[in-house]
Every structure is written in C-alpha cells, then in structure tokens.
Specification:
By secondary structure, this protein is of the alpha+beta class. Helix content is 54%, strand content 17%. Helix 3 (67-75) packs antiparallel against helix 6 and helix 10 runs antiparallel to helix 12 (352-379).
C-alpha cells in the first residue's frame, strides 16, 4: 500500500496543473462553507449587542407591586439577575405628557444610562431626576439644573431636584414607553412595577420558570393575572424560541441551511469532476499496477489518499481566505450608516464550534465527491484500463445525422454535433457547470433587483425626507409652520390628516361592475376613508388632474376601487348623486357625527401624494373642510417635509420637543440593508461562478487533450487547422445553446418563486439584462477556453499524436 501512496504523490507532483485545479476547487468549497458559518456567528453576536442596547438583556418581564413579590424574586436561585422599572405619565402645570422613567441601580448600570447624559449627572436617589432639555424649555423655560420641579398624579404630588439633562429616547420595545425624564424608584410608593428578569438556565426551561413565577406573583399580589412578556428577540438570538414561533431567526437558519446545501451540491459536482478527470488520467497506470497484483481496495484507497492529501493542503488555505475576505467585508459594512446608527459594529468572530462544523462539512463534501471516482477505478478491469475502452461508449446510431441536418449544416458543424454526442457524461458535466453559473447569477441579480424595486416602490422618497406628527389644532399647526418657515434646511412641506374611516350610502350604478355585495356592510353602508391634505396641496392635486378648484367644499375620489384584487372603474362621471348620508358612527359615545355637505365631487387618476387607500373608497378633501368635522377622538396631522439636510433638521426639531421620523435616513438604511445582502450574496455567487468556470476550463482542456489523436486524424485526411477551429467554435455554440435551453426555464422559475416570496406589488418581469450578460459571459468563457487549448493544434505533430504509446 505504501508503494501505491508513493506513486499517488508522484502523480500529484508530475501533474501540477491538475493538482492545483483540484486544490483550488477544494479551497473555494472550504472558503464558502466557513464564510457562511463565520457570517452567521458574527451577525448573531452583532445583533445580540443591538438588542441589548435597544431593548435590554433580560429574558422576560413580570409586573408586581408588593414587597412580598420582590422578596420572592430576590430569593429565587434560578434567576441570574433582574432590575425594576416603572414608567408613568404625570401632570405638570397644564402639561399632562410628563412621562417619568424610574429604575433601580441595576437598571441604570445594565442599560448604561450614563451615556444618555448631555449635561449634569444622573440622579442618585428617588428625589432627583434628569430631564430632556427641549421638553423642559417647552413646559417651563424658567427651570434649569439645580432647580426643583413638582409633578402630580391622581393621588399626590412629587417634588424632584433637576440634576441633569438627558438625550431624547425613542424605544424599540413594544412594552416600553418613551419618556421625558428619569429617576430612581421608590418601592415605598404602592405602584405597579415592571421586573425584567434574566434566568441562569438559557433553554426552553425559561418558559416553564416564567409561568411558575407568574402564578406565584398572582398569589402574592392577590390578583387573577399579572402581565408576562418575553424578550423574544433576545431569546431567539440565544436559540430559545417560543412555541409556534415565527421568529426571523428561524427563517435565517433555514436560509443558511439552503445556502450550505447549494454550496455543498455545487462543490460535490465540481470537485467530483476534478477527481474524475484525475482518475481518468491514471486509469492506464493503475491498470498496470493491477496487472502485477494491486487489488480493487488498494486502487480505491489510492483515490481517498489523494483526496486526504489535497484536503490537508486546502483546509488551512480555505479557512484563512474566509477570515481575510470577511474581515475586509465587515470593515466596509461598518462604514455604512445603517451599522453606525446602531451604536456598535460587526466583527469577524471566530468560533471553535462553527469552525469544527465547517471542517466537518468540508470533509463530508470532499468524501462524497470521491465516492464515484474511487468506485469506478476499483471496478475497472485490467484489460479495459490498459485499452482505455471506457472512454467513449456511444452507439453508432446516436451519431448518425438525418437527411435534413446533413443538408442544413456544413461538414464542420456536423462533426461538432457528433463530437458533442461522443463526450457523453463529460459534456453533461460541462453543461451542468454552465447552467449552475447562469442560474446563480440570474437568481442573485433578480433577488437584488426585486428588493431594490420593493424599497423604491414602498418609499415615496422623492416627496419628503422628514415626517412629524402633531396635534390637529390650528394653534399647533401654525406654531409648527412658523418653525419650519424659519429653518433654512426646509425646502418645502405639506401636511395631511391621519386616517379616519366613515360610512356612507352609494349609488352603485356609477360603477362598471356590480360591487355592492363585495363592499357593503351588513346594514348596507359602505366604508369610506376620508383623507385631508392642506389646501395648497389640494389645489395642486386638482391642477395635476386638470380639475377646476372650486373651494374647500370640494371632494376628490380615486378613479377606481380595488375589489378582491381587481380594479373596478366608473362607467360615468360622478356627481353629488353618487353619495349621500356621509357620517361617523361614534359607538363609544352612542352618537352619529354628520359630515358637512360638499358642493362638488370629481375623480382623480393621479394620486400625487399617495392618499388613496387600497380596498376603500377614498375621499380626498381640503384640510379646511376636514377641520369643520367634529372628531370623535383627538385628531393628528402628519407634516411631510422636504429638507436639504434631513439629519440636521431632525436635530433642530428635537430641540423644540418634537419627535421627527427621519424618513430619508430610514430609506437609506433600507437600501443599505439591501446593499449588505447584495454584498454577501454577490460574493457568494462570484465564488460559485469562479468555481464553475475553473471546472469548465479544466474539463475543456482535458477534453482537448483527450482528442489530440482525433485532431491528428482529421489533419491527416486533409482537414485544415482552420476547419478544426471552426468545428470547435461550433461546439462552443452547441454548449451555449444547451445551457440556455436548460438554464433559461430554470432561471425564470426561480425568478417567479423569488417574486412570489417577496410579495411585491410590482408586476413580474424577467431580468432580460441578466440573461444577456450571462449568455455573453458563458460564450466568452467557452471561446477563450477553446482558443487557449487550440494553440496546441498549431504545434501538433501528426505522427507523434497518432502513436499509441502505452
């Protein structure tokens, strides 16, 4: 056996090109597998930090108010740590929105509240507080650090000393409120507190323990139930999922499993081709060894020995390349705003567990790739090995050309077709590699394109950059408009009402189809979405739709309604007879609010400000008309602002106590999120395509090398070198045509699946550009490979090539 191993090593040294290609194939496979593992591990650690910063590192929260409950939790040995908080709204003078966040010492340390201080310090006891400076200026400009402030609730008053100013805080936790001020809790106050708990045992046992705690606290508090909520994201990042969980992390694990499966399948195909070519080259010499006593098992072991040696060489190279590649990628990603805004960065985190899994998967991949070549080599007989009788096994009937083909195609093209058929499994392997490259490229291009379209279509980015929600009161609106007027960063703005849904009676004869049963309520009324926009913008909508503006008692309605996914238009112009009895039924206060009558109604086709609400008949009215409607609840308006410097404008507005939403930044973050996905998916695709191209080049070279005698015979009977080159050129087109024949329908099918998964409202389109690019690249690779290989023909000696030197 040692002799065969020595011969295997000698063969690897002598056939350096083949050995290097096989090593490259294994290296790329290891690089991709390990890169997926490192990316997953690094991303999970990064997201864990983000959750800890934004939501906290607790597992679940319970509410309690009695000392007995706190003592019970303190003695529970299954709890690793906990902190107590309370968020409550108080009154200060005429302001009822004074939201105070109280916490214990552990809360202040755990959430690193020192970073939120702009000036002064954090409170040190329950008699001190730190407050948002713009909010303090709004409610009482005379107050400053060192002064005392008294707030009250329904029961009593509380006096605090102001010791610092804090930054604005907007929570991402659905159970946690945003606040204006922070202080320490005083458990002597008989209030309801939130206890955020972290368990020692990070497993499914958390849910059992939390339920038991909830039950016990109910007994101690003498109540039927207390709120129990889980920090689902933080649990999921630690691989603890609630029952019937739809966590995004489960989807990520499934996606990673699919990616690994694709990598391993592609790797098996390409590494198999590399070893198959290697074993074909060694058939004769292993046949000679078999003739002097080498057993089938020894021949099989020689193939596995070759794989082991190449694996040992490739493994450290592949691991190192994956670390370097991801280090560079993460450094670039960390410069994006979407990462910078999180307050932390993503790093290349090497995990022994993930590295061992990557090594195991790589070994399995190479082992599977070796099974068929090793089996084939062990079964081949001595005589067949020495004669190489297994190289071409094509029946003569399959090579015959029909009469029509002989008339249409010239001599070189007929030879090209026959040569393609003679290649058998080798040709199928080349086409499989080409199809794999094409499908991967088109799939990634389509996915990125769909994501980009979805973001563009779902974000009216050109309309505004910053959004601010304020009370629908003339005094507040005028005040805010005055602030915008003085700010030089504001290019323009418009404001609109939030949704109010009313009911009315309609004449359905105005519609092209009978939709009465589809849109009517039980009582026969129809839901109407009333949207108001400032008078100036309303006039612009009229102008864009060539409609005469007739005053504030004018109503615009979309020129269609979508019913059961189908657009239904009007068959005639609408007028005041189209609708009657528009009203709001205030069930809570048991009264009906009548809507002021309007003087004219028109329908619009250009929804300039995206006001039409799908699935509803939408009425667009001027803000002056809307403000005459009696509101059942406190109403609000949205200001949409176009800005030259959106980030600076947001900072300016926060100083006035507003909470602007940076729409432009959010859109940019979404686009950068897609960019990050594109970077990873693009890198992955490039590696697979390089992988496939290496395989194609190797197989084409091997094919040309195997056919030296065939070319020599053609030259010996008078075929010119140019004729042979034309024949091989035609072969390239056959491979390209076959690739398109199989690759195009598969790619379209995958594009359709991606389209349905993303669930975009845009219509389905084939990525024609991607198909053209992939075809051009495939043909370029084929022609370049053949051109490089055909240089050998010019140097070929016919007599030497025809010799059968065993």
């Amino acid at each position: 056996m040692k002799i065969i191993n020595k011969l295997t090593l000698r063969y690897l040294k002598q056939n350096k090109k083949r050995t290097i290609f096989t090593i490259l194939s294994i290296v790329l496979s290891i690089t991709m597998i390990n890169a997926v593992g490192i990316s997953l591990n690094s991303a999970m650690k990064f997201y864990q930090k983000v959750i800890e910063i934004n939501q906290g590192n607790y597992h679940y929260q319970l509410t309690a108010g009695k000392k007995e409950s706190f003592d019970y939790i303190k003695k529970d040995n299954q709890i690793q740590s906990y902190y107590i908080t309370n968020t409550k709204e108080y009154n200060y003078k005429n302001h009822s929105d004074f939201v105070l966040k109280r916490g214990d010492l552990t809360y202040f340390k755990n959430r690193n509240k020192n970073k939120d201080i702009e000036k002064g310090r954090l409170p040190e006891n329950s008699k001190e507080l730190a407050i948002l400076k713009p909010y303090l200026k709004e409610i009482d400009p005379s107050k400053n650090i060192g002064d005392f402030i008294t707030i009250k609730d329904d029961k009593k008053s509380y006096t605090f000393k102001i010791v610092g100013f804090i930054k604005g805080y907007e929570t991402t936790n659905s159970y946690e409120r945003s606040y204006n001020a922070v202080s320490y809790i005083d458990l002597a106050n008989k209030e309801l507190y939130t206890i955020s708990i972290t368990d020692k045992d990070v497993s499914k046992n958390i849910f059992t323990h939390a339920f038991e705690l909830q039950k016990k606290i109910c007994e101690l508090e003498n109540v039927e139930s207390v709120r129990l909520s889980y920090n689902s994201s933080y649990l999921a990042i630690q691989n603890v999922f609630e029952e019937n969980s739809n966590s995004i992390f489960l989807m990520i694990y499934r996606l990673v499993a699919i990616i690994l499966a694709i990598i391993m399948i592609a790797s098996v195909i390409i590494i198999y081709q590399a070893f198959n070519l290697s074993t074909n080259d060694r058939v004769q010499y292993l046949g000679m060894l078999a003739s002097v006593g080498a057993t089938p098992i020894q021949k099989k072991k020689s193939v596995y020995f070759e794989g082991l040696i190449l694996m040992i060489i490739s493994l450290p190279i592949g691991l190192l390349l994956s670390y370097i590649g991801l280090f560079i990628t993460f450094n670039f990603i960390n410069s994006l705003d979407i990462i910078l805004n999180t307050g932390t960065t993503i790093h290349t985190i090497v995990s022994l567990q993930f590295t061992l899994i990557a090594i195991a998967l790589s070994v399995i991949t190479v082992f599977i790739s070796l099974i068929l070549p090793a089996r084939k080599l062990s079964k081949i007989s001595v005589l067949d090995a020495l004669k190489k009788s297994d190289e071409i096994k094509v029946k003569s009937k399959k090579l015959k050309m029909n009469f029509l083909s002989r008339k249409i195609f010239n001599y070189q093209y007929q030879l090209a077709i026959k040569n393609y058929k003679r290649q058998g499994r080798r040709a199928k392997g080349i086409i499989l590699s080409l199809v794999l490259s094409m499908v991967l490229f088109i799939s990634i291009f389509s996915f990125s394109n769909l994501m980009h379209q979805e973001i563009v279509s779902s974000n009216a980015y050109d309309l505004y950059d910053v959004n601010v929600n304020i009370a629908d009161e003339k005094k507040e609106i005028d005040k805010f408009k005055n602030i915008l007027k003085k700010n030089d960063k504001v290019e323009g703005y418009y404001y609109k009402s939030l949704d109010y849904n009313f009911v009315a009676e309609f004449d359905f004869n105005y519609f092209e189809e009978d939709i009465k049963d589809s849109v009517s309520n039980i009582d026969g009324s129809v839901g109407v979405a009333v949207k108001a926009i400032d008078d100036k913008s309303f006039e612009k909508i009229c102008k864009d739709n060539d409609i005469e503006f007739k005053g504030i008692y004018q109503v615009l309605v979309s020129d269609y309604i979508r019913v059961n996914g189908k657009k239904v238009s009007y068959k005639k112009d609408i007028d005041k007879g189209f609708i009657k009895n528009l009203k709001y039924e205030d069930c809570e206060n048991n009264k009906v609010i009548k809507i002021p009558d309007f003087e004219s109604i028109n329908y619009v086709s250009k929804d300039t400000y995206y006001l039409n609400q799908e699935g509803w008949i939408t009425f667009i009215v001027p803000m002056s008309y809307y403000q005459k409607i009696e509101k059942p609840t406190v109403s609000c308006v949205d200001f949409d602002i176009k800005a030259t410097k959106h980030q600076e404008l947001c900072k300016d507005l926060k100083k006035y106590g507003y909470y602007p939403f940076d729409y432009a930044q959010n859109t940019q973050d979404n686009r950068q999120a897609v960019l990050i996905v594109q970077i990873f998916m693009g890198g992955f695709t490039c590696l697979v395509i390089i992988f496939s191209i290496l395989n194609i080049v190797n197989m084409m070279n091997a094919s040309i090398d195997k056919r030296q005698k065939e070319f020599a015979m053609l030259l010996s009977v008078g075929t010119s070198p140019t004729g042979i080159k034309k024949m091989i050129l035609y072969e390239s087109f056959i491979y390209g045509f076959k690739t398109l024949l199989y690759g195009v329908p598969i790619s379209i099918f995958i594009e359709w699946i991606l389209y349905k998964q993303i669930n975009t409202l845009n219509s389905f389109h084939i990525s024609i550009f991607a198909y053209i690019v992939s075809f051009v690249v495939i043909m370029f690779v084929m022609l370049l490979t053949f051109k490089m290989s055909l240089k050998k023909i010019d140097k070929q000696n016919i007599i030497e090539s025809l010799k059968d030197d065993m």
